[in-house]
Amino acid sequence: MTPPAERRLLTPEEYREAQASPEFVELKRRFRRFAFPMTVAFLTWYLLYVLLSTYAPDLMATPVFGNINLGILLGLGQFVSTFVITHVYVAHANKRTDPISDEMRERLEHHEYARPGGVGVTRGADETRGGRQ
Amino acid sequence: MLYAAPAAPATTTVGNPAVNISIFGIFVLITLAITFRASRNNKSAADYYAAGRNISGTQNGLAIAGDYLSAASFLGIAGAIAIYGYDGFLYSIGFLVAWLVALLLVAELMRNTARYTMADVLAFRMRQRPVRTAAATSTLVVSLFYLLAQMAGAGALVTLLLGVTGELAQAVVVVLVGALMMVYVLVGGMRGTTYVQIIKATLLIAGAAVMTVWVLGKYGFNFSALLGGAVDTSATQATPRDVLSPGGQYGATSISKLDFISLALALVFGTAGLPHVLMRFYTVPTAKDARRSVVWAIWLIGVFYLFSLVIGYGAGALVGADTILAAPGAVNAAAPLLAFELGGTILLGVIAGVAFATILAVVAGLTITASASFAHDIYASVIKKGQVNPNAEVKVARIAAIVIGAISIGLGILALQAGLNIAFLVALAFAIAASANLPTIIYTLFWQRFTTQGALWSIYGGLITCVTLILFSPVVSGAPVNPATGKSPSLIQDVDFSWFPLNNPGLVSIPLSFFLGWLGTKLSKEQPDELKNAELEVRALTGIGAEKAVAH
Question: Of A77, B70, B275, B325, which one has the fewest beta carbons inside 10 Å?
Fold first, then answer.
């Protein structure tokens, strides 16, 4: 599928240049360093809760206050952690990844990752023009 | 399981069917008017498939909640909490936590790279035709199972809510639901469907909020006192259960425990692979709006499940398990019966109308997804090899919507009359989405070396394993006969060819699909297309080249 007609389509080489650029490496690092460990964390916490509820029902039935027991508290804790992770992710994206991706999109639209000589120019020309901010 | 079809034919109805039907009628009239208004802006393929990509993040969040909170969520979870207590609550948590997978890993990246279907992304850097065919096949299978469940659910629900009994009358209701749904889809396209979802979600959440406050008010706004009420009522029932501790529903044997783990996995990995959920991400203008819509969806769905917790325990305390199980609709009757207990005929009418509207809206969303996948992936890309103009493609999509609608009406009537367990269909749809779709989506977005062979092994491997294991599970044959009804809960009575002990295949099929995706890639000689990789990765993270909103 081809992207929609823009002023001029980006060439595959521009995408490769953009992918190799230090700002993209940094964007990818920031995105993954947040998303991957967080995914592992919430999946572990969810599976732990499911396993406790399934295999340790007596522990989960421990009363905490009134009729509220540990199982219900941990279950509500799953809701709280989901809301908190959502909030933290949005803050992270707004502060840490959006500025880079917005700027890169702007530069890609202006074909700033295209090389003056066209395809296949060796690296080096980039350092002066496309370096990090 | 949740959402069992009513075991016995209904002899009584609750409330006044005329009130229920008129409230539902008002909903239909309003949504039809809005659908016809929305149709004025339906010109291009992007309009039909993706609502012109100018639905706002907030609106889309509501629409996602509308799509996701199907009748199984609304009636099934409240009912399970009312009868089994804690285990019903446990079930709802999987449905919510699953959204973090969508938020962190899938929504924004898919928005940036797909046009209309999941296959747009999966086939992007692979050999187009085989991967598109595979992705479209699993999209159609998941959508069809989900559709079937909703259609059969519609029939089961009206037995209780609208006072319609008898096989013929139920079949007429299923046909009516199907016909209305086709009008929404054909006239309104994705935009009309989205508005229907938004209205439905608003009504559903507002209705649940009213019931929650009402129930809590009866217990002096003390949640602990409500739980006490549920415990007291449960102690007087025919089968007293400890409704506050885990194990009421799933804790019976070591197999039922494993079965629950399997279901928990299918729920948490299935959501982000459901094609009709993914399709909603393409209706917003940018990745930021996709993020915003998931955030809204998480809050709305989370709050709704908290309401369900109160409504479920409220029904357990104020109505009681015996009354609920004796009502037509059984477990599913908990929320409507509680509404009747609290607010009489009018509140019941509102809740009944909302529940019915729920099915209508979900069915419309599924149909548009399945028809888009057929027209965009199979017809335009595989059969016509991309040589087709968008108008012809949309025409095919509309015809596909009619065919899919007709098939689901036919199968829905069969499923209803066979008394098919609806929860099994929904759980199977989640299990297939988790096994056939999610591993390939994750590998495509995050693993550069992933190849065509890996994608095919993962999609077909997950799909075939899932369906095979279900076929040889107690769902289809060999479940022990229930002494109360004298029938086995299996689909086929009196034969036993089952050898897979679990009702849900997720525990086996999800890891297997991830493994097959890895193995297929390692064993293939195909070199990853580096330029396509670069394009996909840069587009996914920066949003360059993403489809823009259509200006009207």
Answer: A77
What single-letter amino acid sits at B95? Answer: F
Alpha-carbon span A79 to B93, nearest angstrom: 7
Would residue B448 count as lying in a domain? no
Give me the residue from A12, A34, A93 closest to B291, CB to CB.
A93
Q: Is residue B461 part of a domain?
A: no
**Residue B437 falls inside a structural domain:** no
Q: What phi and psi values does residue B385 have, to the nearest 5 degrees?
A: 50, 35
**ipTM score assigned to the predicted complex:** 0.89
Domain encompassing residue B391: 17-33+52-419
Q: Does the structure show a pLDDT above 50 at A129?
A: no
pLDDT in tens, B71-115: 767 788 888 899 888 888 888 899 999 999 999 999 999 999 988
Which CATH number is B27's domain given?
Answer: 1.20.1730.10
List all residues of chain A from 16 to 35 with a beta carbon under 8 Å from chain B: 16, 18-19, 24, 27-28, 31-32, 34-35
Minimal Cβ distance to B227: which of A3, A32, A67: A67
In this complex, do B302 and A83 lie within 8 Å of one another by their Cβ atoms?
yes
**pLDDT tens digits, B222-278:** 999 999 999 888 888 888 888 888 877 776 788 888 988 999 999 999 999 999 999
Q: What is the mean pLDDT of residues B163-169?
A: 74
Mutate to test the interface with B, among A13, A17, A19, A69 (most CBs of B within 10 A): A19
Does the predicted model carry a pTM greater than 0.80? yes
Can you tell me the distance from the alpha carbon of B312 to that of A132, in angstroms, rounded to the nearest whole number?
A: 56
Question: Nearest CA to CA, how far is A65 from chain B (Å)?
Answer: 8
pLDDT in tens, A64-106: 988 899 999 999 999 999 999 999 999 999 999 999 999 999 9
Which residue in the block uniquely carries the two structure tokens 């015809």?
B399
Q: How many domains does chain B have?
A: 1
Q: Is the pLDDT of residue B389 over 60?
A: yes
Partners of A68 in beta bridges: A65
Give a yes or no: residue B144 inside a domain.
Answer: yes
Which chain B residue has its CA at the smallest distance from A109's CA? B544
DSSP letter, residue B377: I
A85 at interface of B, judged by CB pairs closer than 8 A: yes
Distance of CA B328 to the CA centre of its chain: 23
A64, containing H or E segment = strand A63-65
